[in-house]
Amino acid sequence: MKFSKKEVKDLLSAWLLISLAFAILFTTELSISVFITSFIISLLTAGIGFLFHELMHKSLAQKYHLWAEFRASYNMLFLAVLFSFFGFIIAAPGGVLIQGHLTKERNGKISLAGPMTNLIIAILFLIPLLILKPENLFNLFLVYGFKINSLLALFNLIPFPPFDGYKVMDWNKTIYYISAIFALGLFIASFFI
């Protein structure tokens, strides 16, 4: 993959700021050590989920020989951090801009790549939860990773513009419904782990 300096800056800034927003949301007590722990967990769960989601859009677009670069939405990142203090997050950290000959099928596949990446990451967090039955901080890390990535997939599969789900549904309704039902199933399952 090819990256411009601006894109690297935007990716790193969005990764850090979205992780900060989730860390604020997750911090349950006024303690520096709890906040630092929450921030590290957020970097490795929500942050990684966001980062790989966007990189998969970019990777597939570039495989189709399209120009593709991530651009952060600093206004939305600021709102995500601000709202996290009030107990919720509206996460729209930016997106991959794509230019070139983009057919409906390619657009659908590129759009599906992000949520599918989150579903795979969610499953990677779920497997050790089921096999190892860990306790304490490692359990919390795995549960957050599973829940957040299944939520990111489901959220991005909303079938209205500008979400990925709209473009997937426009390309192939069957694939859209299978993906959305799977994401919904994983997200619901995350409440019973």
Keywords:
two-stranded antiparallel sheet, single chain, 2 strands, mainly alpha, 193 residues
Secondary structure layout:
Blueprint: H1 5-26, H2 32-63, E1 67-72, H3 74-84, E2 94-99, H4 104-132, H5 136-156, H6 164-171, H7 173-189
Antiparallel strand pairs: 1-2
Helix pairs in contact: 1-2, 1-3, 2-4, 2-5, 4-5, 4-6, 4-7, 5-7, 6-7
Folded structure, characterized:
This protein is 73% helix and 6% strand. The chain is mainly alpha-helical. It has two domains: 1-102, no CATH class; 108-193. Helix 5 runs antiparallel to helix 7 (173-189).
In short:
The protein is mainly alpha-helical and 193 residues long. The chain has helices spanning 5-26, 32-63, 74-84, 104-132, 136-156, 164-171, 173-189; strands at 67-72, 94-99.
pLDDT averaged residue by residue: 95
Tell me the domain tally.
2
Q: Which sheet architecture does the biggest sheet show? A: 2 strands, antiparallel
N/C terminus separation = 36 Å
- Shape, principal axes of CA atoms: globular
Residue runs with pLDDT of under 50 for 5 or more positions: none
Quaternary state, please? Answer: single chain
Q: What is the total tally of β strands?
A: 2
Question: How many alpha or pi helices?
Answer: 7
Helical content (DSSP H or I, runs of 4+): over 70%
